[in-house]
Specification:
alpha+beta; four-stranded antiparallel sheet; four-stranded mixed sheet; 14 helices; globular
Length: about 550
Amino acid sequence: MNCRIGRSYARPAVDTAGLPVMAADVSRNAAGSLGTLSNWTPRRLAWREEGRQREAIALRANDIAVNDAHGASLIDSITINTVGTGLWPRSTPNYKRLGITEEQAAELAESAEWEFEQFAKEADARGVTDFYGIQFQNIWSLLVKGEFVNLPLMLKDPARRYGLALQTVDPLRLRTPLSLVGSKNVRDGIRLGEHGQPVGYFLANPDDGKITASLDISQYRELPPKRGHRPVVLHRFFAKEPEQVRGVSILAPVMKFVKDKADYLDFEIVGAIVAKSFPVWIEKQNAYDATTGLGVKTVQNADATTTHYRELTPGMVHYGNTGEKPHFPQSDPGASFASFLETVLRGIGAACGMPYEIIAKDFSKTNYSSARAALEEAWRVFTLYQDWLVNHFCQVIWEMVFEEAWLRGRLILPAGAPDFYSARAEYCACDWTVPDRTTLDPVKEMVAHVMGKQNNASTDADFAAKRGKDWEKIYEQRARERKKAKGLELPEVNDPTVSKKAQTPDDPLEPSAASSMSAIIAEAIREEIRAAVTAQEQTHGQ
């Protein structure tokens, strides 16, 4: 059946005098059809067209990601900074709701993290990569193709520690069988339920491996989204529109922009090569005189004329026939080439949420403040993708591994604790550590962290997580280092412990000499002021 709308609304009431209760809205120029708007008539796609357009966009985006330098830079920059070497878990069982002690929760968390690491090594059903490599593939596929598809499998292999494994599937396989193209319940390879929710996925599995639109339903496998609480198909995409069922590449809004840019660069390069190929042109009254020179080659043209030339390195000497005049193409790009390329790259970056500096890998035109603002803007996008990946993929797999580890007896719940299935959310609570983020000034970042701790606005756990570290492991390592240093009678370094009481000098710019931390903070403030003044002077100077 079709997707039903859950509720209907009554018509606006009409007054007895004949005046409608709701007044009409004002006319807007945006809906006009005059002037430049006369040929602007967007239309909505039918379901059959939707799949064809999405597939064409995915194929073109894939071509850009592997064949265009700036396209590859954009996709790889987002992927590397979002996933890096992987998002890894830090188990945090809710010991208060479970009714266990904090020590018991810590012991359970350590065991769960160990077991997950063993699973991560063999997470790929093909054995090509590990769980963190699958994260990388999924984000790459999300950016390029707009979605990713994983199939959680239970492999019966006695050599494996865990049966759970993930099969990565090309989203191209998810499509509508030919016999169901006219069905009102199947949209772009997905069977929809009463409320528009997926109830079945059609994955093409042809015998010859050729995935085409003419495949019959016998060449497909229909899989349900879930069996019980365990997922069967992990089809994930970043939904931006209501009733959206498939994802679209982030390159879709700028695809023509990228193609035009690539063509323009090709034409400039070809023009320069052609121009440099004809450095010397010699016109002779008798073209046959050229044939007597050493190394001169002769070519018979289609119009029965003869061309004589001598190759040199890197160009050539061309002997023209009588009456022929040379026409040299422009060898250097126009004056607007650099500004044009920069404008195009800025437009591509704006559509994808990335600053120009990230795409072009060019920070030569930015100062400290501009570079910092650009990186902060980029990290907002990276953080968005990280949170999305954690909620829609990583946490799902964590819960499945935790469940299997408990069923296999490798995770022992504390005595008196609730059953796993009655408190699954409490047992599987987990934080995910992300890759270390780029920082332009580590000293200022550290000073800000210290100030945050002094004022109870930040923790070591937060600071370590932003840098891709585990605060507990840092503490344990520091304790081992200090113990080892003491045993070797090495000189003590300054105690990094921060006082719990915040220091609040009357004037932060003139702290007392007794407060070394305040002096560091004051110097950082002075640097910020100098940078702001310098930036303002440069702006006025331009």
